[in-house]
Specification:
Length: 120
């Protein structure tokens, strides 16, 4: 099971090592479980990830679109320049918001609600 913790209404999934297709399916399933529990704000912490299989990023994109359709989001944190390059090469960098630190990714969810000045 992937390590995961919750900060307020944001779920953080910590991933490490090499993300191959099988590992990406595990991540997809963890996010699916969060969606079932109505936890729609997700941060994937990639600080300890060495490599990601570029073919598996499409699986992540599918989850991103699903979360956004449900008014949630999936943000990436702690990517190395090497990982960022992989996302760029496959054209996925324009879909995902990525943040240098986990704290920045978590704080970015607050920014999403400040736009129109109305209270929810």
């Amino acid at each position: 099971m992937l390590p995961q913790n919750n900060i307020q209404d944001i779920s953080v999934i910590d991933v490490s090592g090499d993300i191959d297709f099988r590992e990406m399916i595990r991540i997809k399933n963890v996010i699916g479980g969060l969606i079932e529990k109505d936890r729609l704000k997700v941060v994937l912490n990639l600080r300890a990830v060495d490599h990601i299989n570029y073919l598996s990023i499409g699986v992540l994109l599918e989850r991103l679109k699903l979360l956004r359709n449900l008014n949630g989001d999936l943000k990436l944190a702690g990517m190395s320049p090497f990982l960022r390059d992989i996302f760029k090469v496959v054209g996925m960098d324009r879909f995902f918001e990525d943040y240098t630190s986990l704290e920045d990714a978590i704080e970015s969810f607050d920014d999403d609600w400040e736009g129109d000045g109305t209270s929810h």
